[in-house]
Amino acid sequence: MRTTTALEHLAILLRGYGLLTEPCGTGLAVSNPITSALSETVYCDEFGSFITAWGYAFGQRGQEAAAADRLAFLLGVPSCSTRAGSPIVRPHALQAETSATSSVVDSR
What we know:
Layout: H1 3-16, E1 20-24, E2 27-32, E3 35-44, E4 49-52, E5 57-60, H2 64-74, H3 92-99
């Protein structure tokens, strides 16, 4: 899997939490729409780890759903929104968009 594909899949999942995402060079800018103070640029390194701009590893390529859960928590998404099966996590539009990334397998 290409690194950009992993970041694209992560972006789809993060948008399901209501977070804003935008490509940023080789990374992904992610922010909470409520306040710009809750934002982070994330990357996927050569070992397949998702890392923040300040070096915090929060997940692995191939486990994008778990990584999205962790990053959403760090960016202030209420904990009730991160439970598996929550409407915020898997709205119908998100499921269709996730299916479009055919090479990515959801680990849940």
